[in-house]
Amino acid sequence: MFFFVATLACSRRLHVRAFRAERQEHWFAGMESAFRTFGGVPEEVLLDKARALIQHHDPVSREVVVNPKLHAFARHWGFRVKACAPCRARTKGKDERGVGHVKSNAIAGRRFESFAALEAHLDAWIREVADTRAHGTTGEPPRVRFERDEAQRLRPAVGIPPFMASRDLVRKVTADCSVEVDGNAYSVPWRLIGERVTVTVTGAELRVLHAGQEVARHALRAGRHGRVADPAHFAGIGRRQTPAAPEGPPALLRPLAEYDAVAGGAW
Question: Quick one: which of 204, 215, 161 has its CA closest to 181?
Fold first, then answer.
């Protein structure tokens, strides 16, 4: 079990989500859920150095290489990405303290009959305990401090669609008759090998268009390193085109009388 914990810097208000895995889509789902719950988007989001989000962070130069998809996600929601500095407890501790607090105060010593029961417990714990207790640092309940000092400083999230809801991508069809989206391969007609196509992801569906015409449609696949194929996209691949055989015996190029004359008369 994995827990996503978001903490607002000023009020220390928490948002918690439970996930069965720690993939990139779960990070995005957790952040979007936090934005919806808080009613807005902060200017900056401090993230742990998770492999699904940060490709490289040089501790000397402080250079950060962000995963391209996280960069697109941040651009979609309008926030700046800041990564925890390696081996620096001041930022790393601030990022992880909320996770430890949830595990020791909301989860420790409890058992849940189902995943839904765990989610319901976390919602109730946030609402009845975490939001209302006097915070050890600020001395105020996070909800009170949030509504007074922080809520109006967030950029409204109303009207911003989910990042994964609709995306338009450009891909080049590979030699194995497919396009890659989010780590999975989706087949397209083999005649388009080498061509650039438009891939539209809407909800749980993926469409591929070429020259404005739909050439493939697939259900979006969860996870990574998978392949979704339509057998019709490979029909006719490798088939040789041979010319049709002429009907009947081949026609003579000259009349028989001319051949008789050259040969010295009829047999």
Answer: 204
Alpha-helical (H) ranges within 39-85 are 68-77
How many other CB atoms sit within 10 Å of the CB of residue 38?
A: 19
Check: pTM over 0.70? Answer yes or no.
no
**How many other C-beta atoms are found inside a 10 Å radius of the C-beta of residue 11?**
23
3-state helix, strand, coil in the chain (%, to 5): 35, 25, 40
Through-space distance between the first and last CA atoms of the chain, rounded to whole angstroms: 99
CA distance linking residue 257 with residue 220, whole number of Å = 74
Contact 195, 177 (CB under 8 A): no
Domain span at 147: 2-156
Provide the token pair at 247: 């009907």
Tell me which residue of 65, 4, 15 sits closest to 39, measured CA to CA.
15
Beta bridge partners of 217: 207
| Within-domain flag for 128 | yes
Q: Are 70 and 186 in contact (CB under 8 A)?
A: no
Q: Is the pLDDT assigned to residue 94 strictly greater than 90?
A: no
Residues 104 and 207 in one domain: no
In order, the DSSP letters of 122-143 are: HHHHIIIIITTSPPTTTSS-HH
Q: How far apart are CA 100 and CA 72, in angstroms?
A: 29
C-beta of residue 179 within 8 angstroms of C-beta of residue 171: yes
- What pLDDT is stored for residue 101 in this prediction? 83
Interatomic CA distance for residues 228 and 179, integer angstroms? 10
Q: Does the structure show a pLDDT above 80 at 29? A: yes
Q: How many domains does the chain have?
A: 2
